[in-house]
Amino acid sequence: MTERFEAGTYDVIVIGAGHAGCEAALAAARMGQRTLILSINLDSIAMMPCNPSIGGTGKGHLVKEVDALGGEMGLNIDKAFIQSRMLNTAKGPAVHSLRAQADKNLYHIEMKKTLENEPNLDVKQGEVVEIIAKDNVVKGIALRAGSIYYSKAVILATGTYLGGKIFIGQSSFQSGPNGLAPSLELSDSLKKLGIKLTRFKTGTPARIDMKTLDFDQMEEQPGDEVIVPFSFMNDELYREQISCWLTYTNGETHRIINENLNRSAMYSGQIEGTGPRYCPSIEDKIVRFADKNRHQLFIEPEGLNTKEMYVQGMSTSLPEDVQIAFLSTIPGLQRVKIMRPAYAIEYDCIDPTELNLSLEFKGIENLFSAGQFNGSSGYEEAAAQGLMAGINSVLKIQGEEPFILDRSQGYIGVLIDDLVTKGTNEPYRMMTSRAEYRLVLRQDNADLRLTEKGYKIGLVKEDRYRKYIDRKSQIDIEMERLKTTSVKPNEINDFLEKNGSSQIKSSISLYDLLKRPELDYHMLKEIDTTRAQDIKRDVASQCNVQIKYEGYITKQLKQIDQFKKLESKKLYQDIEYSKIEGLRIEARQKLDEIKPLSVGQASRISGVSPADISVLLVFLEQQRRKRGEENE
Amino acid sequence: MIDDTITAIATAPGEAGISIIRMSGPSCVDILDNIFKPKKGSSIKAFSERKLVYGHIVDKEDDRILDEVLAVYMKAPYTYTKEDIVEINCHGGIVPTRNILEIVLKNGVRMAEPGEFTKRAFLNGRIDLAQAEAVMDLISAKTDKGFDVALNQLEGGLSKKVKEVRSSIVETLSHIHVSIDYTEEDIEEITYPELISRTREIEEKIESMLKTSETGKIIREGLNTVIIGKPNVGKSSLMNALLRESRAIVTDIPGTTRDVIEEQLSVKGIPLKIVDTAGIRETEDVVEKIGVERSKEFFNKADLIILVLDSSDEITKEDREIINHIKDRKALVLLNKTDLIKRIDEDELERVLPSKRIIKVSILEEEGLSEIEDEIVKMVYGGEVKADNNSFVTNLRHKNSLQKALNSIREGTAAARQYLPFDLLEVDIKDCYDALGEITGDTVDDDIIQKIFANFCLGK
Predict the structure, then answer these.
(1) Set of chain B residues whose Cβ sits within 8 Å of the Cβ of A95
(2) Is this complex's ipTM strictly greater than 0.85?
(3) Is residue A149 domain-resident?
(4) pTM
């Protein structure tokens, strides 16, 4: 056995430097803790082993929230993007989602630079083989080479590295993502600590050579003319953008895949892990949706300085010869050459119900966990958890209450509540439909919702805070102006008629005028004579959204009030659910296992029925009365 | 939580042949063992469950026999509350019942709060919220029809309907969610016309449930019916005839003046609160005037008006005045005294009251009475509710929730008509879904639960 030696002491150690690890380490360091971040390979810091983009529906919201709280992902993608699009603009403002294509290498370089330049943060290459704990309190970690680091808190952000196994067709081998070394010993150490591990699976499509593609047979997907930055720190960004390309499979593609299903690792039963339903492999799509005669695929650049292109929508575990055969049937890809074949990867992860809402393990104090290892999927989901785990590790060390966002405060709250309360049986992906209160949780107001909170916990620094205060007051002033500025019929009736809006008989405020579906803030410029010339685009659109959807936002706020009622009914951690007679057996077990913080959280546990919740409510009422009597 | 045992007198208060004292909870068998001495055998524990056993209730302190009784115990979970239940059948009357209740309480059993047995049945998952409320209605149901409706709700009739509507809402929501989340996928999105047809369908289903709520109210509380007509047309005879026909004659309501008499009766299962008025006409007589004022008050709040005319007389100025008042009301017109020579102008009558049902009767000869009854039944059900469809909404809370659900889904439809974005109108559809969930208890709301149980009557 390798001889061990003491190598140093930190406040917080973060294992893994992917999207979760980077946010966790930066948050801890920025909150003043001496922090160490470890990666199996420093060249894989903030690596994007799957799609070359950040954001998208639901995910874009997460990035905005991470940014609003003082995280790094938004700033980093703003440095590294090569195309930017606001998705879903045909729909309402709540589901507008920002997505940017990244230059993967640049993204990595920029994030590595940020880590390296962060005071309080040490960046180190090494494979962690053991978590050192005593009496269920974490004490530090040991590296393969023998060095031991002690710390007050440890954050696991191991992504898909733990027990990683790659499948390409019928060949399989132990590996981390993208051919990197896997982490094979840490799992045993975790099991010894009583942490239950399970296997999840995910996959990535092939990367193909740009030189072998005929783009004139594909549909071009350019970026937006006006770029909305991810970070609230950036007002406006200008950059030359690179296009993506759209093409489709056909009957011949499907025939080849169908004939070779027996050679797919997925279908031949080699993979035991559960894959994500929402991101099915192409063989899955063809089998499950046999009546669909085509599936779309996007060809996306991996960066500016590479010919590699990502084939979105075509993840597969078929062998490489089949991959070439079916890709060659697709318009524009007839001469295709694969540079990296598609693969599926299976890895160890935990059942996230083993965690508290603070992302600390229920069974081991000061051990936190974030990212794909918690059963989620996606860079953005990872970053959001990393940030929260980083913040909460620091608060724990400082003896403060954990920082928990509820479902009405952010997508981050939805994400963590879903994972920790309900658990997941497939890699969990954020979606806007998971957020019940999405009208209030828009990506455009993430700073208005969260920056104040980030400032209070010490992660948001003065520059960001001042920027937020400034934006907020500009919005307030403009809203007030719109309310108090009224226009007369003779001033605007021509304008109204021109825009297909009914004319007015008496004066009306600009605010009320804006509520008309056929008008918007931009159009009103023509008649709005007192509008400031230099009004910022984001301030303008914020006012527009807040006014236009006021009615619905009010309705949603009522829903939130209702939600908060049950959320504010706290459940004490020492309640013995097994002794509450009215509860069904399954509910007792689940409640004992999850130990929810509130009746609201309890109501979201699967296996706990509304009737069980009534029992809990009555139980709480009785306890309250009993306590009342004792006090008398 | 439910670790204590509760008790209540399960039978109606007052003098009766038998009273039943019921206990529910884990210790009820032990307690029975403590206070009950079976005639044969030594211990209650030797009983087989669900079998009546003869014996005495004995106060152990002084070995005093309180009453001779029949006792039975039913083992959990196959009982009303899903808990162990004991019932003691004792002699009726206040004294023995009280005595036994007192000794049960002395043994550490707690007096049940209003509705607590049902509350436990609900909490133990035996029945859902709508069913729990139906129990309450069952207890207070005034007529056979009311009993049927309550029973149907107890068996989950309303819950089933609400659940059906909720599941079609979920389907609609899933279409909306797909189009919100899979914006770049090659999926056919739901169109606005499709969405509108779905929300309209939901609307209609809720509307039809709500329609039954009016009938439901009538079935629970009685149909406010007023008999009017000038003096001596046969109003009182009609009232008496209907009372003779009906099985359930209830009492005069005290406090009514000599001019307004209110009776309760049941017409083919429909309860009527029927008022015979002193006639609506201006009068100088002060005493009579009081009666007339009251008549007008009854008249104004009536659900159904029965106008009685004398067919052996011409239509008088007085008649015309009354006809004017009932034109826009739900009313039934009787042409009485068909045994006499006809003088009334029926054509004129049909002209001034075009849509009213006119029935020829002779109350004296008891002719046409069953026609009146049939017509009342028809008017109550409005042709909209089939006789075998018992999912009436009889409860005010249900009605409010349905109304809330209806308003929300209507707003959703209106929003879709204006092509508002899906993520906005989803809020309305979700509100509708939650409001319906309040009925069955699938939407958990602390306030509702507290309120409901406070409304339950004592005992079951």
Answers:
(1) 180-181, 183, 421-423
(2) no
(3) yes
(4) 0.75
